[in-house]
Amino acid sequence: ARERVPTAELGARQRAEGFPVSNFGDGRYVTWGGGVPLVLDGEVVGAIGVSGLPEHEDVALATMAASLLHV
């Protein structure tokens, strides 16, 4: 949520630029799919994280949950 994009997008951006997530120096960052920021009126107010299924299913569930919250 800190970067204001889903974790899958953050990971794709980092890989495209040739920078591993370890460059953040913060073990709380992840770059596989399943994390979705919750944005309300342009401000990040939280996040949803789903893990344990194949990545595409984690992404689908997190995205669906965010849409149900109407943010």
In short:
By secondary structure, this protein is an alpha+beta fold. Helices cover 35% and strands 18% of the residues. The chain has a single domain (7-68), classed as Beta-Lactamase, CATH 3.30.450.
**Main beta sheet strand tally, sense and closure:** 2 strands, antiparallel
Rounded to an integer in angstroms, the radius of gyration calculated over CA atoms is 12 Å
Mean pLDDT equals 86
CATH class identity = Alpha Beta
CATH superfamily: Haem-degrading domain
Percent helix, as a range, is: 25-40%
Give the total of domains.
Answer: 1
CATH level 3 topology: Beta-Lactamase
CATH architecture: 2-Layer Sandwich
Amount of beta strand:
15-25%
Taken from the alpha-carbon principal axes, the silhouette is globular
Question: How many helices?
Answer: 2
N-to-C CA distance: 13 Å
Query: What is the helix/strand order?
Result: HEEH
Structural class: alpha+beta
Q: What assembly state would you assign to the polypeptide chains in this entry?
A: single chain
Arrangement of strands in the largest sheet: 1-2
Outline the low-pLDDT stretches: none
Count every beta strand, where a strand is a DSSP E run of 2 or more residues.
2
SSE topology sketch:
Layout: H1 7-17, E1 35-40, E2 43-49, H2 55-68
Antiparallel strand pairs: 1-2
General description of the model:
- Strand 1 and strand 2 form a beta hairpin.
- This protein has helices spanning 7-17, 55-68, and strands spanning 35-40, 43-49.
- The chain has one domain (7-68): Haem-degrading domain (Beta-Lactamase, 2-Layer Sandwich).
- A two-stranded antiparallel sheet has the order 1-2.
- It is an alpha+beta fold and 71 residues long.
